[in-house]
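Q: What residues go here?
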């Protein structure tokens, strides 16, 4: 849901915005977009992946759920992925931060995961794809419980190569070469 404002909001205005609630917002082309509450399956999928990646040896301090990621969307905007995995360098930069906001001058996350919600597919598949690629994020996973597939986008020379996984097909990842996870396992959360 887009929040009506009198004029387009700048990134600086977004940083200072406070509506008196704990609501999260994305900033897209100067417009505030409320981040809706997640369905049970979306939350389960994000938590499942967090636990799974942790079991592969990634320390907990490198994960965030609902972190804000500054992106270039016409002007500087902000996205709020379901799960973000920091590099060691980004984790050091973020240490002690008062807000979980990854600015444009910071190293990009290694991985962002978006779990598709109803009526949000075009934003996850189209807009966020180009924004995350421009940001240099190594992998972008689109987990789609509606279409029953996991799309893994791997950043190669400024663009994403796309791999689609369904059913019991094992997911390949450049970040996690030892991955033995299937799309079915991810979608069950």
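A:
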């Amino acid at each position: 849901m887009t929040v009506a404002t009198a004029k387009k909001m700048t990134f600086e205005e977004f940083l200072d915005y406070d509506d008196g609630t704990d609501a999260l917002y994305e900033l897209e082309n100067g417009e505030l977009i409320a981040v809706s509450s997640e369905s049970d399956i979306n939350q389960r999928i994000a938590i499942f992946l967090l636990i799974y990646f942790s079991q592969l040896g990634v320390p907990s301090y490198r994960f965030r759920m609902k972190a804000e990621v500054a992106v270039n969307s016409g002007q500087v905007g902000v996205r709020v992925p379901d799960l973000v995995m920091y590099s060691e360098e980004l984790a050091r930069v973020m240490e002690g931060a008062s807000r979980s906001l990854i600015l444009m001058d910071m190293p990009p996350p290694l991985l962002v995961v978006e779990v598709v919600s109803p009526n949000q597919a075009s934003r996850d598949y189209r807009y966020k794809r180009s924004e995350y690629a421009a940001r240099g994020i190594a992998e972008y996973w689109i987990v789609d419980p509606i279409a029953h597939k996991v799309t893994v986008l791997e950043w190669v020379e400024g663009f994403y190569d796309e791999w689609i996984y369904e059913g019991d097909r094992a997911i390949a990842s450049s970040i996690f070469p030892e991955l033995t996870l299937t799309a079915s396992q991810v979608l069950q959360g």
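A: Context that may help when evaluating the design: The two ends are 26 Å apart (CA to CA). Residues 154 and 161 are 5 Å apart (CA to CA).
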